[in-house]
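DATA SHEET
Item: assembly model
Revision: 1
Owner: S.N.
Input lines:
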Amino acid sequence: MTYKTRADGRKFDETRKIEAKVGIIPNADGSAYFKIGNTWAYAAVYGPRNLHPKFLQDPSKGILRCNYNMMPFSSSGERVRPGGSRRSKEISMVTEKALLPVLDLVEYPNSVVDVFIELPQTEAGSRCAGICAASMALADAGLAMKDLVAAISVGRVDDKIVVDLNYLEESYPDGPVADIPVAMMPNQGKITLLQMDGLISKDNLKKALEMAKKACKDIYEIQKKALKEKYRTEAEEQV
Amino acid sequence: MSEIKVKDKDIVVPGEVVALGMDIFPGSGTYREGENIISARLGLVQIDGRTIKLIPLSGRYIPKKFDTIICKVTDVSLNGWRLDTNSPYQAMLPMKEATSQFIPRGADLTQFYDIGDYIVCKIFNVTSQKLVDVTMRGVGLSKLKGGRTIQVESNKVPRIVGKQGSMVSMIKDATGCNIIVGQNGLVWINGTPENELLAIKSIRKIEEESHLSGLTDKIKEFLDNGKAKPSV
């Protein structure tokens, strides 16, 4: 049996519907949400700010701290136990590593930039949505960045290569599946996050990464628009 | 073969190509990658001859030499005061920079500035590790008595002050308040309660509409309207 059409009627290289907005949390120095299908990620950035305990400070540059958290009611199945888990700890770590290459924190020695990613509802691709939201929030916080980071999951469902797997595809029962979250600097074409769950051949992986590259460029345009929108509306409302 | 891809006062995001070609120079907030000049932050484009620079629209205050700032005293030690600067870094006010008075050995330093006091001071040194030293010696540097302190975005301080202080003196004249604007985004206002509120409202308005032209006229109108009604 082959995988002919996608469960939600999308094309194989089409992402779910994306919505992005910047400046949603007034208390934070920078904030954004990124909604892709039923996966919603909210990111808030605080800092650069004073870092304690002191032994964590780095005198040569500021540090980045990410915190990924799924809310208890966020999954469609069982309640997610609140607080950190092994999974959330790992995702916080990979998010941090995906964002760090674009940031320039040498201007802020001994300080910290905190990124909080909260997910009120999830349906596959949550780490990618989190990274997209966090990178917009970091730009909104006015930090020096080489590029934004866009992320998307690609993969294979049975014999097809697809972009942005949803939960049904991730858990496709009738054939092998590979789920590959990719984060990229869209303008430089460099990859900052690459993980995989499942099996895929070398050729298919290359094809999948090409598709990810294209999808990331599209996401970058959405991020760009959302960032410009915040300052543009402020300017145009008064005219 | 050079080409500037953006207009003056455009908003650009990180990673956006702002110009092509080697005879255009990257200013602050941009960097060169090959032949391209790329934006390195969210900001407003300013084209200055052949240089392109970005004016930041957001971000925390970072201490800079010779800035006059408003600080809160957080700690009193043997040889001076520790201050909160509304930035990631604390400042140190050494005893000899604190006042022109003679401070005898072993004196109780809280009689000059106590914890929780707000003071106006000037940064006279910032090290590479962002150790900040401030001084109180100079014109207009003193402890703030009475009034209220509000926090604004530090990137908008230049708009609140205006050209040669035109904006802030307009608010001062209209409300009769004493106003001191610190570069770090703290603003101290002292007057009658109604006038203080009017001054705060107009400052918030400037903050919201800071990237619009004709701001001075709008604020003037706002202040006139505010004064005509019996203020709330």
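QC remark: Chain B has three domains: 3-56, 68-135, 148-228.
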